[in-house]
Amino acid sequence: MSPTTQIIIGVVVLVVAIGLVTWKRSTGDGKPSGTLVFEDEDGNKIEVPEGENPLGAILAAETEKLREQGVAIAEMEPLEGTAFYIKIPEAVQPIERGEKYEEPLWDEFEKDNSGEIIGGGTMMDTDKNIEYCGIDVTVADVEKGLEIMRRVLIKQGAPEGTLLIQLEPKEIEHPLHKPKG
Predict the structure, then answer these.
(1) Distance (Å, rounded) from C-alpha 3 to C-alpha 116?
(2) Phi, psi for residue 7 in degrees, rounded to 5
(3) Residues 6 or more apart from 112 whose CB is under 8 A from it?
(4) pTM for this structure?
(5) Structural domain spans, the chain
């Protein structure tokens, strides 16, 4: 499943969850006063104890309904691994970034479930010119993930100055290109 398809499914689930739910504070029925009760379009109630994330509970319930309907969404489960931010100093628009970098990375990660694209963005300067773009990635294995990211990004023509920033357990900047000299 391509990153674009995943995003569309995620947005649809989010819109359905938020748009079709009514928020009601529990006032009785033996439930704690801090319990939030949500009701979806089918009249199903979702209870969320105080202090828990209501959006997470709604999304979980809506996801379960989709699974019951036979919608294949297993690919949407988050990958356990190490987070990276790929910083590419190139003025590319979001769609071009997706086609040029995200989709080829996704294709490689998908072959053996070694990583996944989590998101992406564009940083603009004060004059509203694109300064750089970024891709959020999670990899199952750091060394293998770095090898795949380097191979794909170099093949796709990522410019000098591109950084593969490992975000955990501590931040480490891995230059895409070896320093000259």
Answers:
(1) 9
(2) -65, -45
(3) none
(4) 0.59
(5) 3-75, 82-175
3-state per-residue secondary structure call for the chain: CCHHHHHHHHHHHHHHHHHCCEEEECCCCCCCCCCEEEECCCCCEEEECCCCCHHHHHHHHHHHHHHHCCCCCHHHCCCCCEEEEEEECCCCCHHHHHHHHHHHHHHHHHHHCCEEEEEEEEEECCCCCEEEEEEEEEECCHHHHHHHHHHHHHHCCCCCCCEEEECCCCCEEEECCCCCC
In tens, the pLDDT along 147-165 reads 999 999 999 999 999 999 9
Q: What is the largest CA-CA distance in the chain?
A: 73
Architecture in CATH for domain 82-175: 2-Layer Sandwich (3.30)
